Amino acid sequence: MTPPQGGKGGNASAPPKLRKPKTNRLVVKRGTVPPSVFLHTISDKEWEEFIAAACRQRTIHTAKYVSVKVLGNAGDKGRDVEARLQAALVADGWDLYQAKHYEQRLTPGNAYPELVKFFGHLLAKSFPVPRKYYFCAPKNVGPELHDLLASPDNLRTSLLTAWKAGTHGLNAAKLTSEMEAFINAFDFKRFEECQVVDLLAWYAEDANAYCKLFGIEPERGDDPSVPAQAEAHEMTYISELIRAYAEAEGVPMTLPQVLADEEYREHLAAAREAFYAAEGLKRFSRDIYVEDEFKKLLDMVLTGVRLKVKSPLLKSGLQRHDAAVDAAQALTLTDSVLHTRLRGGDLPGTCHHLVNEKQLTWVR
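That's the ABC-three component systems C-terminal domain-containing protein sequence above. Prediction below.
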């Protein structure tokens, strides 16, 4: 029998546990409530503004609204938020969002007075017929109103029955034969619920605004490790460094020659570490933000270092490299949304990314 291998007690030594790399992600601040719950705590006016902001991010088919305006106030004629599909306010060319910030779910009793007001203004030609009329409430509509909205004919019948009976706060005397005929001819499929989950999804298209409003912070994961061998996408900035080394030595140099020289090998290794630190920031930007925030940061760095790099007092490529790195490290980039997630090697690394994109060179 083969004896067990390993150390004391004859147990084989367990392989070391490898830590799983942290990924870029959004995390909720401690003490922050979920977005859908947070919306219960805001004011009526803030609710209208939230709906408008969400609508500005909404895509209908392939287009966004041309204009979105909060009208909720005295004299709004029952239009809390007006969202136009085209510049002119025309029939079927806009959507009406009715904002109701109540502690309970919306009921027919909440909806009917608004519908009566709406039909009164339509009949008076105060505004053209909207494409859709949306009910928006933090706790959504209740089951009774939900069922009615799902069955447009039943909604019409229920509204007229309540109006004739004078229930739900309606004045039966104001239901004229002209109004009843108008309601019977109206397409009740225009009335829909706009659920909170949809509003949140639209609002989330603006990642910066979403994170700010709901107390969500982007968390940067681990930076990529530096490959043992230089990869193809690195060769532009590495070639420029080799040119600077060759200039300093006064003789042409190749990458194998650089790696054979201790000083240049260590300098190149440090440059690659900085490049991959900035690469981690680039991937963080890509994973978290809609817009290319890393590109914006590079533009800021380029503006901040260009004057130093172009100084006629600098006579060598390595001097220009060091001037760029020093200038980049001294920058305060608070205008960038990435500035709170910067790490030690990021700004020096951006200099190598700028060289990789052929926006900077070291050797003239």
